[in-house]
Amino acid sequence: MFPKEHGAYGQLLFPLLTALAIGRRTPAALLLAGAAICAFVAHEPLLVLLGQRGPRAAREQRSRAIAWFAVAAVGAIVLAAGAMIQARDGLALARSLLVPAAFAMALAAAIALHREHTLAGEILAAITFSSIAYPIARARVRKDAIDVQHAHGYVVQTLADLGLVGLLLSLAALVAWVIAAARPLGLPIPELSLWARGPPQGAPNPALKARPDRAAAVAIAAVALTFGVHSFIDWTWFIPGTAIVGLVCAGWVAGRGPLDAPERDRAPGTLWMRLSAAGGVAVVGLALMWAIWQPLRSDQADADAVAQLAKGNVPAALAATQTAENRDPLSVDPLFERATILESRGQQAAAAAVLQEAIRLQPSNAQTWERMAVHLFASEHKPREALPFARAAVFLDPHSVQTRGILLTILRAQKTAPPKPAKPGKAKPLTAPGD
Q1: 16: number of Cβ within 10 Å
Q2: What are the φ/ψ torsions at residue 67 (nearest 5 degrees)?
Q3: Core-most of 27, 112, 219, 299, by most CB within 10 Å?
């Protein structure tokens, strides 16, 4: 399943070796070079799956091609993500990969349209192989523990939140969408449906012809593809206004089905399979809605607690914080609100106990330690006891200007505090007159 065009090896290796010779052979650069090699290895199985190695190869080597392509694609994405994590500036490295990614997508389109071996296709392949040299040459190893406050890219954020398991699940969903989206686009990717029957055919799909409905499907798929590529480097996926548009377009393309497929008299599969699938989707949807709704209701209860405190109704405010905690027991905001209310009533010990509970709930959150330090310093006037909590907050979030300012204020207050009076010692007996 290795590429048969021997000149392609030179087109890839020469830019890679040049980039590694010019730049530093850091782990980030080596990981990125490995990702480029994996993407190159995925070329041959893609040709087999598209039927460009002949109908016989498409029939006999289909399983091997799928396995090779999946392993190579997953390897390329995982290695590229590892390079961005190891790089000194992962966001800048991700941006530098946009140009090679754009050329790679254009080359994949040329392969699908049987234009790879034309003059324009060969030039495009050479540019694609050469464009990977720049990101590899500029890759550097990071020197500090934290570069930015948030990992904007979807891949890096998924690795931080869910690890490799979450990234592999996302990749599996991406592969499933690509296979489903290939049907309305007319791309001859083998059918992997549970209800598919008969051997796969390697001949080009008739839907590749220019048709108005295919042009519409391509335009909608381009919207989803643009959303996915841009989410690789920025927070596009985090903003509902853009995410909903991208998800709706991706869902329409995946559910459209082949353009040239005959109309079915009945839905595929048995009744119990369709009911099970619909029930599973409904259960997952309800669970996701509940997971979103409960934190929202908790925030509403927090806002109600603030409103009740402004009215002077302290018992109602405390009850509202308890309601907020019950709705979202993993949030520390209700505990912060309750501590503020207790401080206003002069119950400093009770407020400190609530803040200790917040620290136990989220010990890796710098805000919990910072809030405890502010309470001990401002409410109980104990800078010595507040100092360890302020230092812990700075340790967890060393780039926060507010946290460092609190620590500096406590240190200054501790130095200017009046010394404690010395304990009176025992009087010495007089041994001589005049002592």
Answers
A1: 20
A2: -65, -45
A3: 112
Cβ–Cβ under 8 Å, residues 355 and 339 = yes
Same domain, 282 and 138: no
Give CA–CA dist 304/148, Å, rounded: 34
Could you report the per-residue pLDDT of 169-215, keeping only the tens digit for each? 888 888 888 888 887 777 665 444 444 444 444 444 554 555 677 77
pLDDT at 34: 85
CA within 13 Å, CB half, 341 = 27
Q: Based on DSSP, count helices (H) and strands (E) in the chain, helices before strands.
A: 19, 0
Number of domains in the chain: 2
Amino acid at 404: R
At residue 210, the pLDDT reads 59
DSSP-assigned beta bridge partners for residue 141? 87
Tokens, residue 229: 């590529």
- Cα 169 to its chain centre, rounded Å, is 12
pLDDT < 50 regions, the chain? 141-147, 190-204, 207, 422, 425, 427-435
68, 45 Cβ separation under 8 angstroms:
yes
Which is nearest to 20 in space by CA: 159, 160, 133, 141?
A: 133
pLDDT for 53 equals 72
DSSP E strands, 209-271? none
Q: How many CB atoms lie within 10 A of CB 89?
A: 16
Residues 214 and 186: beta-carbon distance below 8 Å: yes
Whole-prediction pTM = 0.49
**Which among 99, 93, 227, 90 has a CA at the least distance from the CA of 157?**
90
pLDDT in tens, 233-262: 777 777 888 888 988 999 998 888 777 665
Asked if 143 and 286 sit in the same domain, the reply is: no
Amino acid at 332: V
| Residue at which a domain ends, from 100, 121, 149 | 149
Write out the two tokens for 17: 């070796």
CATH number reported for the structural domain that contains residue 304 in this entry: 1.25.40.10
Distance CA 20, CA 25 (A): 6
| Share of residues in the chain with pLDDT > 70 (%) | 80
